[in-house]
Amino acid sequence: MDIRDLVPAVEAVVFAAARPLDANQIAEILETESAAVQEALATLQFSCDEQNRGVFLEHVAGGYQLRTRPQFAEYLRRLGRRRPFRFSRAALETLAIIAYRQPVTRPDIEYLRGVDSGSVLKTLIEKHLVRILGKKDVPGKPMIYGTTPAFLELFGLPDLASLPTLQEFSELMDEGFAAETDDSLRDETEEQTPMPANGS
Amino acid sequence: MEPYQIHLENFTGPLDLLLHLIRKHEMDIYDIPIADVTSQYLAILDAMQTLNLDIAGEFLLMAATLVHIKSKMLLPKIAEEDTAEEEEDPRAELVRRLLEYQKYKEAAATLDERPKLNLDVFDRYAPEPEAQEKSDGGFAEVSLFDLLAALREVLSQNPEPSFHTVDMDRLSVADRINLILERLQGEQSIAFNDLFSGTIERGDIIVTFLATLELVRMRLIRLMQNARFGTIWLMAAVEVGAGELKIGEEHFGYS
Predict the structure, then answer these.
(1) pTM of the model as a whole
(2) How far lies B37's CA from each of A51, B8, B177, in Å?
């Protein structure tokens, strides 16, 4: 397929897919080479940005998905789609620990947080953001936990390696650096994840 | 330093509260004035108790830890210069935990700043279509518990009426079995919930459910699902020609 035909074809497939698709899956559907699809994806992403379209191509959970631009969030919320799980600070802390430390046991999480995390953990599992990966081969065989693809989709992350680098502290941060986390997310929606050259 | 108004529920745990106190009073993390911090911390817990609020055990554990560290620091240093091992500062572990905790607290805040799906960015609204669920294969056998959960759901949609009805003109299990087999000749599979569509009476639901169980027992149908908590599908286990198999009333103990 010619690249000029391939780009709209890729766009059509990505648009219609229910889940993020990776270049190989798209190539299989279009009966073409994965490398060509990769190129088409890059072109598509570029043109979405260039033409100031309402959607952009996001590299998420190992695949690609068309998503609306954050600046229209206010309007799109009026569509009445189911809202994502509203995070308490405890849930976010727990999720961050699991995301960065996985595979991790519940005692590990509780030592780091200094507080019982059983109910928060249960909620995160119910929301399909965290899953049980197995049992640790130590006395007591504690469950080990990790994040799910739904976690990557929720936060728009291509993979776990793309998590923001964990900052090491040797000093305390200024008071209140995370005090307004609930409101800050609304102001910081301009930020977007750039698409790496090689996504699959 | 005077105690100030503080709301314990704003803190995710004792480490969070301690971190706040140390920052608030601009204390040196590597040289925490443990007596000050301890009295501040205890004053907050006291205030909470006065208000009759439940204090989570973890907050009390931290109070005990602080008092323990404080008492250790009050002990005179025993002149043990001969021993090569230098005793660690009693505060060291607490400092390590506070810094480690701060790391994840910060990571959580960073994560929270990202645009979130269905809040800041939206994908095309695509609920898993049932038809797709049906065709993508990968079926697994349904367990008894899945089946009972499905029954409970159907029953919950048809609550028991509060009045008594004497009308007993209902289908028998045998009739219902034949009905299901007939339907299965036309279709490759039937969704479990579709068996009950249009059913208003709980009695009918029970009869249909018993018929389903009998069909499975007789190995005439198989119950499959392709996702945990997914739709349960009835599939014909053997090819039965029209009219070839008629189930009579005498097969069962119930009528």
Answers:
(1) 0.63
(2) 57, 16, 74
